[in-house]
């Protein structure tokens, strides 16, 4: 059996080699450039640590990612709850509504938001019709968040639903029978049981938020860059490969930090983390 | 229906509208008669679609995208299916390591991968070449195939394959004749998702494209940053129809999988 096992596992090698060479090598290359370009040393990290523009970019990225995670979690929870507690047919329809945009081009969606949010766009046309003063939204952080959260919703909804479907519906019922009011049965029984889904969704949404390039580039302002956009500017426009590498290192450190943080939070609360693959991918 | 249920439905309908409806606005914009993206569009014309198909930059971009996406789908599906099958035969550290390595491209921000690839491609002359695009897009698409085929494999009864061996089929024949047909729904949806991943990809493609080889999303992205050209709306409508069609295909084939198992 073990001989046969090892022989079949050879089939995985081409893909592993492809990802190893085609993915790991370029990623490591840019990370290494942070300490070798333009000359060996730590000057790029000194720039990152002392330059106020770089500070602003990093803090803005974290702030945006936290907000995006909170907004999607608050909006996704009732939606996922409805999905989990409805009939199979309703659940399938709600599922398609979540999945369709998942596979609609990010750029087409950003373009649609431009048409809606621009100064002479749909939103202001509607506002004018009801007698409200027009607003400038395109080019602000609000526009970036509206576009980002729309894209991120499926990543929050799917892990929540998969956890909620696993909750034994007799448990909140038992709490009700024993005299708990409805809200208490939900808050003290159902909600804690659904937390692993909230954590898995938050993890994936936060990580994905750190890497958004298209949406901020099109809906935000060049004066309010996020890390991915700054990375592009540094490397492609300013040819500062080393600084780009330092920004890449900073991003991956944040991704790693979130993993560690969520691991400890889930340990502390005694919930089991869903595997990343279960997070709706 | 009680009060809290009504509130839940109301909230969910608004959320559903926010997810699906805004994107549809590109359709009326693409039939605009005027050279403007202001809302509401005025008149009705097909001039932006005409413009799209007559402009070699736009139409060529579409052809490039379709070609790259089809080839990527084939490559990623073959490699991803083999990988999912191979990984299902090992346990413990090897399996965890393999799976985590193969989903990395989904987690690491595309801009980091793109800029690293750009650095390597500049040195090797792969910028703006078909092999360069295929390498980049296959790397990004393989994880989706591994995940979809992997989930089908998890529900697949290995005894069937053993039965084929017992009946005298060799490993290859059992794999091609029994395992692959059983996994077909997962393989098909993996192929659809690989196609869309490539067809939609813009961040990495932007780094590795050149004026000689550009995909449609890259052309659109460049267009949106520079000018007001309703041809972009026509392109967006075409992309939406293509990817939505492929996505429905993918979701349906996954549905098929569930029915069978």
Instruction: Tell me the distance between the termini of chain B.
Output: 35 Å
Uncertain runs of chain B with pLDDT below 50, 5 residues or more? none
Largest β-sheet summary of chain B? none
- Helical content of chain A (DSSP H or I, runs of 4+): over 70%
Query: Radius of gyration of chain B, Cα only, in angstroms?
Result: 22 Å
* Overall strand count of chain A: 0
CATH superfamily of chain B: MetI-like
Under CATH, the topology of chain B is which? MetI-like fold
What pattern of helices and strands is seen along the backbone of chain A?
HHHHHHHHHHHHH
- Report the β-strand fraction of chain A as a percent range: under 5%
Query: Strand portion of chain B, in percent?
Result: under 5%
| CATH class term of chain B | Mainly Alpha
Largest sheet of chain A: none
The average pLDDT of chain A is 87
* Continuous helix count of chain A: 13
Can you say what the CATH homologous superfamily of chain A is?
MetI-like
Per CATH, the architecture of chain A is Orthogonal Bundle
